Amino acid sequence: MNKKIYVLLAFSILISGCASFTRCGKTSTSGKGQPPVILDSYAPSHIRPGETWRVYLRAKDPDGDMKQMIQILVWGGSGPFKTTFAPLRAEYSAEMGGYFFFRTPSPAQADYNRLGFVGLTLRIALLDCQKNKSEYVEFPLDFTFEAAPDLPPEWQDVADRSLGAIMFDLGDMLNKNRGGGN
């Protein structure tokens, strides 16, 4: 069942990625233009293992040609674990507000003890068709058995607006030493 979901997800990303490159073909890349700007961001700093983490962003691009989100997952202070480039939907090429979600495996699916006392940090930047990049924003994440805090009031207007997925397999990373990784 999981393989079917991953295949469908990979196919969807491929199709949306092709669409974003087609969209950029219509944009002039002769000038450098202006980079996207992340206006505001928020994510809870802790969640329970197995919960879905929501990372909220408000961003705009003066040129209206945002195309991708660069996602870098850092494990403790050891440097980047993985980097992915997630395409943005065409309707968010000029302005967006909402959340990206990251599904975390349950304790039965992953060895959270491997994290020890260090958490994860997600670094995000936005890229436009002219290869201009926004500044990075960082979101620390620790896994606890405490409930995540309530969403702040200033994010309620976009609480139900999903912008897409954060594409990392945390279960694979946590299970490398116990035979669960590839």
Give a brief description:
With 182 residues, the protein is of the alpha+beta class. 16% of the residues lie in helices and 35% in strands.
Mean pLDDT: 81
* Unreliable runs: 5-9, 13-22, 177-182
Helix content: 10-25%
Given the helix and strand composition, which structural class is it?
A: alpha+beta
Q: Distance between termini?
A: 18 Å
Number of strands: 9
Provide a count of the helices: 2
Shape: globular
> What Rg, in angstroms, do the CA atoms define?
17 Å
Beta-strand percentage range: 35-45%
Order of helices and strands: HEEEEEEEEEH
Major β-sheet annotation: 5 strands, mixed
Strand order of the largest sheet: 2-8-7-4-5
Model description:
The protein is α+β, with helices and mostly antiparallel strands and 182 residues long. The protein is 16% helix and 35% strand. It is built from 2 helices and 9 strands. It has helices spanning 2-25, 170-175; strands spanning 37-42, 46-47, 52-60, 66-75, 80-87, 95-103, 120-128, 137-143, 162-165. It has a 5-stranded mixed sheet with strand order 2-8-7-4-5. It has a 4-stranded mixed sheet with strand order 1-3-6-9, with no helix packed on it. A hairpin with a 4-residue loop joins strand 4 (66-75) and strand 5 (80-87). The radius of gyration is 17 Å and the shape is globular. The two termini are 18 Å apart.
Annotation keywords:
182 residues; alpha+beta; 5-stranded mixed beta sheet; 2 helices; 9 strands
